[in-house]
Amino acid sequence: MSARWDRLTAVWGTLMAATLASWAIGTQHGHDHDVRRLATVGVIIVAFAKVHLVGRHFMDLRGAPVLLKIAFTGWVVGVPATLVTIHLLRS
Protein backbone atom coordinates (compact mmCIF):
# COMPACT_ATOMS: atom_id res chain seq x y z
CA MET A 1 0.00 0.00 0.00
CA SER A 2 1.31 3.45 -0.85
CA ALA A 3 1.98 6.27 1.58
CA ARG A 4 -0.88 8.23 -0.05
CA TRP A 5 -3.39 5.52 0.78
CA ASP A 6 -2.04 5.26 4.32
CA ARG A 7 -2.50 9.03 4.74
CA LEU A 8 -6.01 8.96 3.27
CA THR A 9 -6.96 6.02 5.47
CA ALA A 10 -5.76 7.92 8.54
CA VAL A 11 -7.71 11.02 7.48
CA TRP A 12 -10.81 8.89 6.85
CA GLY A 13 -10.47 7.39 10.34
CA THR A 14 -10.16 10.89 11.79
CA LEU A 15 -13.29 11.96 9.91
CA MET A 16 -15.20 8.99 11.30
CA ALA A 17 -14.02 9.75 14.84
CA ALA A 18 -15.01 13.41 14.39
CA THR A 19 -18.45 12.33 13.19
CA LEU A 20 -18.93 10.22 16.31
CA ALA A 21 -17.64 13.06 18.49
CA SER A 22 -20.05 15.58 17.00
CA TRP A 23 -22.91 13.11 17.37
CA ALA A 24 -21.99 12.59 21.03
CA ILE A 25 -21.68 16.34 21.60
CA GLY A 26 -25.00 17.01 19.88
CA THR A 27 -27.03 14.35 21.66
CA GLN A 28 -25.61 14.34 25.19
CA HIS A 29 -26.12 17.96 26.18
CA GLY A 30 -29.18 17.67 28.41
CA HIS A 31 -31.60 20.53 28.94
CA ASP A 32 -29.30 23.21 30.33
CA HIS A 33 -29.34 26.28 28.03
CA ASP A 34 -25.64 27.08 28.47
CA VAL A 35 -24.61 23.49 27.79
CA ARG A 36 -26.74 23.44 24.61
CA ARG A 37 -25.08 26.65 23.43
CA LEU A 38 -21.62 25.18 23.95
CA ALA A 39 -22.68 21.90 22.32
CA THR A 40 -23.81 23.80 19.24
CA VAL A 41 -20.49 25.63 19.09
CA GLY A 42 -18.67 22.31 19.43
CA VAL A 43 -20.62 20.72 16.60
CA ILE A 44 -19.95 23.71 14.32
CA ILE A 45 -16.23 23.56 15.05
CA VAL A 46 -16.05 19.81 14.45
CA ALA A 47 -18.02 20.17 11.21
CA PHE A 48 -15.66 22.78 9.79
CA ALA A 49 -12.60 20.83 10.94
CA LYS A 50 -14.01 17.98 8.85
CA VAL A 51 -14.55 20.35 5.90
CA HIS A 52 -10.90 21.36 6.18
CA LEU A 53 -9.73 17.73 6.19
CA VAL A 54 -11.90 16.82 3.20
CA GLY A 55 -10.74 19.85 1.23
CA ARG A 56 -7.05 19.33 1.95
CA HIS A 57 -6.89 15.57 1.51
CA PHE A 58 -9.74 14.41 -0.72
CA MET A 59 -10.10 17.45 -2.97
CA ASP A 60 -6.32 17.71 -3.38
CA LEU A 61 -5.95 21.23 -2.05
CA ARG A 62 -2.63 20.15 -0.53
CA GLY A 63 -1.02 20.70 -3.92
CA ALA A 64 -3.12 23.70 -4.93
CA PRO A 65 -1.74 27.18 -5.57
CA VAL A 66 -0.99 29.17 -2.42
CA LEU A 67 -3.76 31.74 -2.99
CA LEU A 68 -6.36 28.97 -3.28
CA LYS A 69 -5.11 27.39 -0.05
CA ILE A 70 -5.27 30.76 1.70
CA ALA A 71 -8.79 31.44 0.39
CA PHE A 72 -9.99 27.98 1.45
CA THR A 73 -8.44 28.28 4.91
CA GLY A 74 -9.94 31.76 5.29
CA TRP A 75 -13.36 30.39 4.39
CA VAL A 76 -12.97 27.44 6.78
CA VAL A 77 -12.06 29.81 9.61
CA GLY A 78 -14.32 32.76 8.71
CA VAL A 79 -17.62 30.99 8.19
CA PRO A 80 -17.66 29.04 11.47
CA ALA A 81 -16.40 32.10 13.36
CA THR A 82 -19.32 34.08 11.94
CA LEU A 83 -21.80 31.28 12.71
CA VAL A 84 -20.55 30.88 16.28
CA THR A 85 -20.64 34.64 16.87
CA ILE A 86 -24.20 34.93 15.56
CA HIS A 87 -25.29 31.89 17.56
CA LEU A 88 -23.80 33.15 20.82
CA LEU A 89 -25.19 36.66 20.37
CA ARG A 90 -28.71 35.43 19.54
CA SER A 91 -29.09 32.70 22.15
Automatic annotation (TrEMBL):
Keyword terms, alphabetized: Cell membrane, Membrane, Transmembrane, Transmembrane helix
Membrane topology term: Multi-pass membrane protein
Annotated coiled-coil segments of the chain: none
Protein name in the entry: Cytochrome C oxidase subunit IV
Transmembrane region(s): 34-54, 66-89
Protein's cellular compartments: Cell membrane
Principal location listed in the UniProt entry: membrane
Native species: Protofrankia coriariae
InterPro entries: Cyt_c_oxidase_su4_prok
Pfam family, one: COX4_pro
